[in-house]
Amino acid sequence: MPLPVVLLHGARTSGTMWRAQLEALERAGRQAVAPDLPGHGRRVQETFTVDGALEAVGEAVDRVGGRAVVVGLSLGGYLAAAWAARHPEGTAALLLSGCSTDPDTVLTGAWLQAARVIGHLPDRGAALNQTLVERALPPEGAADAAAGGFALDVMVDLLDAMRALDPRADLQRFTGPVWFANGQWDHFRLHERRFLAARPGARRVVVRGATHLTSLVRPVAFTRVLLELLEEVDPPAVRAAGRQPAGRLAVSPGR
């Protein structure tokens, strides 16, 4: 059977942001799920914690058979790396996007302070969020991001919790294939070289014209990268033989 895929969304969005990729994977004959993380989507009433989020990732992987290619954007990318480091046997490969900046920096502190201020606005930042969505995303991407609702109250808990993660150490611990698919204009590429150095052999793909929310801004290009990764780690010949590739399959170096 083809390897399944678990897709992890970014902050304030939900699993609906992956609708274009879910449709493409279904056409390709791949089982895929896009869970809502705590504090988001159907779980918006829950408090976000790293432990709770990693538990949600594990539940999604179990749902598709216990081993999957894990894809994550921004928040989802950091969590994908953390989960893979702790559960390498359940992770066939990683595709990470928009998560090549250390999560505990002076900038994170500034975002945390801004989130506290926005949370005290009468609309809790709904108008600001809508403006950013309309300016940053094409109509289809904006519709997919909005379909599951926006988590307006999650950012303080989320930013505070995520500072405890060490994604570069997580990447060093995971020995399977790792691909980075970053938008050309993504502001979360600040430490990209350090992330690539932490995972020798990782492949970097720059999606031209894309910003931070690469899969929503350039869905076709992002999906092509994902399908290329899947064909590399799980080619038809391997599937036909009834076996799956080892977790240490080599990938082309970062460039």
Question: According to CATH, what is the class?
Answer: Alpha Beta
What percent strand?
5-15%
**Backbone shape:** globular
Identify the CATH architecture: 3-Layer(aba) Sandwich
Share of residues in helices: 40-55%
Beta strands, count? 6
- Per the CATH scheme, the topology name is Rossmann fold
Number of helices: 12
Compressed to H and E, one letter per element, the order equals: EHEHEHEHHHHHEHEHHH
Strand order of the largest sheet: 2-1-3-4-5-6
Q: Which runs of at least 5 residues are low in confidence (pLDDT < 50)?
A: 243-255
**Euclidean distance between termini CA atoms:** 32 Å
On the 0 to 100 scale, the average pLDDT is 91
Q: Could you walk me through the main structural features you see in this protein, from its secondary elements to its overall organization?
A:
The protein is of the alpha/beta class. The chain has one domain (5-240): Rossmann fold (3-Layer(aba) Sandwich). 45% of the residues lie in helices and 12% in strands. It has twelve helices and six strands. Strands 2-1-3-4-5-6 form a six-stranded parallel sheet, sandwiched between helices. Helix 3 (75-86) links the parallel strand 3 and strand 4. The longest helix is centred in the last third of the chain and has 15 residues, at 219-233. Mean pLDDT is 91; it is low at 243-255.
